[in-house]
Structure formats: structure tokens, C-alpha cells
Amino acid sequence: MVPPEWVTYRAGDLGAALAAYRAAHEQLRRQLGVEPGLELTGMHQAMLERSPRLDRPGR
Where is the Bacterial transcriptional activator domain (predicted)? Predict the structure, then answer.
């Protein structure tokens, strides 16, 4: 499954992508009592850095 924050980030909406991450993070903590895993936190960090690894191929 593709995380919604990645979809909104690639669509050019960083604010919505970060909001989706915060919502997922809060839901994981509240409902399951866990923190996001390395993949999700890595994606979050890459979004904050506007890392080219998240860009669309050919951009």
C-alpha cells in the first residue's frame, strides 16, 4: 500500500503530506501504542529535506 503522505508529496502538496504523516503517527500511538517504523519516519525525514529520492522519475 502506498502511504497517503507520499502521494500528496509527489502531487506537490508538502503541507498535506506532513499533515497525513502527523495523523498516521498519532493514530499509531493512540490505537496501537507504537511509534512509526523506520520506513515511515525515513519518508517523513526525506519530505522535510525535500529529498530528490522522493521525486518522480524524470523530474
Answer: 9-48
Contact 14, 5 (CB under 8 A): no
Residue 4: CA count within 13 A, CB half-sphere: 10
- Beta-carbon contacts of 53 under 8 Å, excluding residues fewer than 6 positions away, are 46
Model's pTM, two decimal places? 0.74
50: left (phi over 0), alpha (psi -120 to 50) or beta: left
Q: Rounded to an integer, what distance in angstroms lies between the CA atom of residue 21 and that of residue 37?
A: 12
Distance, in Å, from the CA atom of 26 to the CA atom of 23, rounded to the nearest integer, reads 5
